[in-house]
Design brief:
GO molecular function: dioxygenase activity
Protein name: Dioxygenase
Number of domains: 1
Radius of gyration: 17 Å
Pfam families: LigB
Number of helices: 10
Strand order of the largest sheet: 5-2-6-1-10-7
Largest sheet: 6 strands, mixed
InterPro entries: Extradiol_dOase_DODA, Xdiol_dOase_suB
CATH class: Alpha Beta
CATH superfamily: LigB-like
Strand content: 15-25%
Order of helices and strands: EHEEHEHEHEHHHHHHEEEE
Distance between the termini: 21 Å
Helix content: 25-40%
Number of strands: 10
CATH architecture: 3-Layer(aba) Sandwich
CATH topology: Protocatechuate 4,5-dioxygenase, Chain B
Cofactor: Zn(2+)
Structural class: alpha/beta
Length: 263
């Protein structure tokens, strides 16, 4: 079996499920070109635990972990099966790398997981299981976590980090603005680091990129990018998912590492 690509996907607001825009269309096109994995392992900042958690459910529920959005969102379900065997294998791989993971028999998929998957694999016919984002990660530890997951890509698992390339919730909730220039400046800096394969620079994003702390007042929506990049173990063969900017402040860009050629 050939090595699976890994990816970072921006999941934006929960409304992305019903308002796909340019990012949703690009994810749908991407899903048609990706090799079919045995399962998707997805890391979302909406499930954080002190040590890594791994969802073992054979039929993970769709978790509607949000409020204040259209009631129609609560009627959306993503009925993909889980993959208990590969989830259990993930626990073994993480233990071998020195982490202390815990299995969760009843863990479903939060919106950071099922919303992007709804566009990437809309038929919900690819097994999906979620891995939590460990708390108290910094950039180096996030990279180490992705490196620990890397062997799974040789076993048919597509590792996906789900976050947001920019994520200032205060501005999202309290400002009605056109696209903020700082969002594009930050996004362009990150894109350049990724395309150059400059992983050391990428890990320094939140201390060196322009407007880094405005783009990410907290780290959790950025760290899944480092996890996905580290899990790929590839410096090049990167495809950009140009998702545009929604709500004026949310960059929806993503990246596929060790990417197959575009159709």
């Amino acid at each position: 079996m050939s090595r699976m690509p890994t990816a970072f996907l921006s999941h934006g607001a929960p409304s992305f499920a019903l308002e796909p825009g340019v990012a949703g269309a690009h994810l749908g096109a991407l899903g048609k070109t990706l090799p079919r994995p045995e399962a998707v392992l997805i890391v979302s900042p909406h499930w954080m635990t002190p040590q890594p958690g791994v969802g073992l459910a054979s039929r993970p529920e769709t978790i509607h972990d949000f409020g204040g959005f259209s009631p129609a969102l609560r009627r959306v379900h993503y009925p993909a099966p889980g993959h208990p065997a590969l989830a259990a294998r993930t626990i073994d791989v993480l233990r071998q790398a020195g982490w202390a993971p815990r299995g969760y028999d009843d863990r479903g998929l939060d919106h950071g997981a099922w919303v992007p998957m709804l566009h990437l694999f809309p038929q919900a016919d690819v097994p999906v299981f979620q891995v939590s984002l460990p708390t108290k990660l910094d950039a180096e530890r996030a990279w180490a976590f992705g490196t620990a997951l890397a062997p799974l890509a040789d076993e048919g698992v597509m590792v996906i980090g789900s976050g947001s390339l920019t994520h200032n919730l205060f501005e999202f909730m309290h400002r009605a603005v056109e696209d903020e220039p700082y969002v594009r400046q930050f996004t362009d800096w990150v894109r350049d680091a990724v395309l150059r394969g400059d992983h050391a620079r990428l890990r320094r994003t939140l201390t060196e990129a322009p407007h880094a702390r405005r783009a990410h007042p907290t780290d959790e929506h950025f760290l899944p990018l480092l996890i996905a990049a580290a899990a790929s173990q590839a410096s090049h063969d990167v495809r950009v998912i140009d998702g545009g900017i929604t709500h004026g402040v949310l960059s929806m860009d993503g990246f596929v590492f060790h990417a197959p050629p575009a159709a």
